[in-house]
Amino acid sequence: MEMTKDKLQEAEDEKKFQTFKNFKLKRKIGKGRFSSVYQAKCTIDNSIYAVKKVIIPDYTDPVVCQKYMLEVKLLKSCHHHNIIRYFASFLIDDCVLLIICELADAGDLECMIKVFREKKIRIPERTIWKYFYPVASAVCYLHDRRIMHRDIKPSNIYVTGKGVVKLGDFGLGRALGSGTAAASSWVGTPYYMSPERVAQRDYDFKSDIWSLGCLLYELAALRSPFFGVKLTLVQLCEKIENGDYRPLEPQLYSLNLRQLVDKAIMIKPDDRPTASQVLCEASNMYRESNSTTI
Q1: Which residues are paired to 167 by β-bridges?
Q2: Cα distances (Å, whole numbers) of residue 18 to 44, 100, 103, 205
Q3: Which helix (H) or strand (E) holds 125?
Q4: Which domains are present in the chain?
Q5: Dihedral pair phi/psi, residue 258, rounded to 5°
Q6: Is 108 a known active-site residue?
Q7: Which residues, listed in sequence order, are joined to residue 96 by a DSSP beta bridge?
Q8: In this structure, is the dihedral angle defined by the CA atoms of residues 205, 209, 214 and 215, taken in order, positive or negative?
């Protein structure tokens, strides 16, 4: 019996992902505190990937190692059109973790927002929904699988050469068991942190919803809702805890967009919508914006 096309592809992938020796690192395309991201080429078929190289700071501590292996586990469990795809991982010398992922080679939303801001041009609302809707879909998928992302921000949202929006960087992701309601560690980017996280209280999936609201606001205003010139960390935390942000201008954006931002950036978590409710609204607005001019 002849092998199907999918089976042949699986066999080829299994072969090339057996060892990291089949890959050659090229240029560095990103850097974090303990990690770097490289463009890499497979020497078998010349296909291009992204490789995240993580230096485990204290590899002798099993808790630390478990944290980084969790990232691999989360990536491997996620199969969604708008989430960066995981292919394989390798632990080198017990302290270097190499994660091979799909390469989104058209940049990220942070770069796009920066370009619009520097040119002093607003992002058209139909374009905002074009980028926000796929992110909402990805987050809804994660929440359905009991996974919090915990670091949703423009720099973690990528675009492929074909224009597909992808949510990535699960270095801070966390899977919650069905019987677990909240987490309590303080990780993430301050500008997108929810009030409960800033106050170092327990938080749940509604914290991601706050970050989605901040993302939608920034796509419209080209700034974080809590941005301030020479703002200290204490002042930033106070603004977040008080929900102190300037509303979007009604003459520039639809009521639906402004209301969704306001609902997501509610101080009390229970007052925020669920990921499925955000997705429903984003989906409706995406379809409407593609049939009419907003």
Answers
A1: 83, 157
A2: 12, 12, 19, 36
A3: helix 125-144
A4: 18-101 (3.30.200.20), 109-291 (1.10.510.10)
A5: -65, -40
A6: no
A7: 55, 92
A8: positive
Q: How far apart are CA 291 and CA 87, in angstroms?
A: 37
Cβ-contact 212, 264 below 8 angstroms: yes
**Cβ neighbours for 255, distance < 8 A, ≥ 6 positions apart:** none
Predicted local confidence at residue 294, as pLDDT:
47
- Burial (Cβ within 10 Å: 0-12, 13-18, ≥19) of residue 180: exposed
Token pair, residue 135, equals 């992110």
The alpha carbon dihedral of 119, 123, 127, 132 has a sign of positive
How far apart, in whole angstroms, are the C-alpha atoms of residue 254 and residue 281? 13
Q: Write the pLDDT tens digit of every residue in 249-263.
A: 999 999 999 999 999
Beta bridge partners of 91: 97
pLDDT at 52 over 60: yes
Contact 196, 269 (CB under 8 A): yes
How does residue 3 score in pLDDT terms, banded at 50, 70 and 90?
A: low
Residue 171's pLDDT band (boundaries 50, 70, 90)?
A: low
| Helical residues (DSSP H) of the chain, grouped into ranges | 5-16, 62-77, 109-119, 125-144, 195-198, 206-221, 233-241, 255-264, 275-291
Report d(CA 193, CA 151) in Å as an integer.
8
| Structure-token pair, residue 57 | 């700071």
Contact 273, 212 (CB under 8 A): no
Q: CA angle at residue 113 from 165 to 226, to 5 degrees?
A: 110
- pLDDT for position 10: 67
Catalytic member of 61, 108, 151, 208: 151
Directed axis angle between helix 275-291 and helix 206-221, to 10°? 30
